[in-house]
Write a structure and sequence with these properties.
This protein has 242 residues and is mainly alpha-helical. It has one domain (61-233). The protein is built from 8 helices and 2 strands; from the N terminus they run E-H-H-H-H-H-H-H-H-E. Strands 1-2 form a two-stranded antiparallel sheet. Helix 1 (17-43) packs antiparallel against helix 8 (201-232), helix 3 runs antiparallel to helix 4 and helix 6 packs antiparallel against helix 7. The longest helix has 32 residues, at 164-195. The radius of gyration is 21 Å and the shape is globular.
Length: 242
């Protein structure tokens, strides 16, 4: 006899923001420890470690740290999308802003994997609108600075309406991320221009700090989004018919 269970299956997602943050921090610290070893191997001229080290150097593109950053931004987008869905169900006032935020995070995930910002910077650099030297040697910071200012102004009412814990958390995570992605990046650009990449210890230290701040900022962002979701959602489940 063929027995069929027609009861809908339900998958419950348990949100543990602190545990998620701890996991992300552990990954970030591990990646930077491996990156430090990779940088040391490069300066020590150890060919057998240099090739492996390229997979872990946080200053390089299209390697394991890049993959992590793409996944982290994707997780931030997913969590923000869940908040948007929850807000839509309970008739929240800023559903569109949450959805747009999720799309922005998806773009940043795509940007991390494809380095769109660097291509845009190189393209605009050829226009010679501003001297692309010193702090502006990595010219992508110019257009992205305008975008940050624009988004900050558009999202000011949204941010002000959030609970104090979430609002301060978003400000903290954004400050850490932008401070690394643009602030430290500009100083490393100046060092790169004057001393080059190959023999500058300072440049390697700066881009390591930059990447650490970027990863930490995204991890904090994920934590505060999940914390908001957990606080403002009684239960979260995904169901489907079998």
């Amino acid at each position: 006899m063929d027995l069929q269970n027609n009861t809908p299956s339900t998958l419950k997602l348990v949100l543990e923001p602190k545990r998620c943050l701890q996991c992300l921090l552990a990954i970030i610290l591990t990646l930077h420890a491996l990156s430090a070893i990779a940088i040391w191997a490069d300066f020590a001229d150890l060919p057998y470690l240099e090739e492996i080290g390229e997979f872990f150097d946080v200053g390089l593109e299209k390697n394991i740290p890049t993959m992590y950053s793409v996944l982290a931004w994707s997780l931030a987008a997913f969590a923000t999308g869940l908040v948007a869905h929850s807000e839509a169900i309970r008739g929240g006032a800023f559903v569109g802003r949450w959805r747009a935020l999720a799309l922005i995070f998806l773009f940043l995930a795509f940007d991390e994997g494809t380095t769109i910002h660097e291509h845009i910077g190189s393209y605009l650099k050829d226009w010679e609108l501003l001297p692309a030297t010193g702090l502006l040697h990595f010219f992508w910071v110019v257009p992205y600075s305008f975008l940050v200012i624009l988004l900050a102004s558009l999202y000011a009412p949204f941010l002000d309406a959030l609970p104090t814990r979430t609002k301060l958390g978003f400000i903290l995570s954004g400050t850490v991320f932008i401070g690394g992605a643009m602030g430290v990046e500009m100083f490393s650009a100046s060092v790169y221009e004057t001393k080059g990449e190959g023999h500058s210890v300072l440049y390697h230290v700066l881009y390591s700090i930059e990447e650490f701040m970027e990863m930490l900022g995204v991890a904090l962002l994920i934590f505060f989004v999940l914390d908001y979701l957990k606080t403002h959602t009684r239960g979260l489940s995904v169901s489907w018919q079998r």
